[in-house]
Amino acid sequence: MGLPVADRVLSRCLAALLAAGTASTVHAQVTVDGAWARATVPNQSATGAFMRLTAQKDVVLTCANSPVAGIVEVHEMWMDQGIMRMRPADRVPLKAGQTIELKSGGLHVMMMDLKKQIKAGERVPLTLSFTAADGSVSKIEVNATAGFTPPTR
Ligand SMILES: [Cu+2]
User: Which PANTHER family does this chain map to (predicted)?
Assistant: First the structure.
């Protein structure tokens, strides 16, 4: 089941990239707060990133990338008979003015095929792409702080 998922995310990311090349890219439609990534131990291949996102207008989170991971997906998590399960989220819509929280145990950015260990205190760069109803794509750069626990605010 790995391949179809990767294909889907990849083509979605590609679509976002292509759209970004033709439409004007608008910045700062989405603000990010409290971004952090869970630090890893040596040889760990995957980890999560978490943050609060607030959009100025209705958009859908369509794509996530990071230079430190081969595959980046947005996952949702839920409890199923006492077992924590997760899967790629099909759509992550953001309503204008409403903050959604990507957090441990809920929606999260899943970074897989990690290219290096993520040490506590490091910055983890992420690029998130959002598509609006008119098809325009905006991208934001996120610097998540790595740690083993969420940052205190
Ligand atoms: Cu996940």
Answer: BLR7088 PROTEIN, COPPER CHAPERONE PCU(A)C
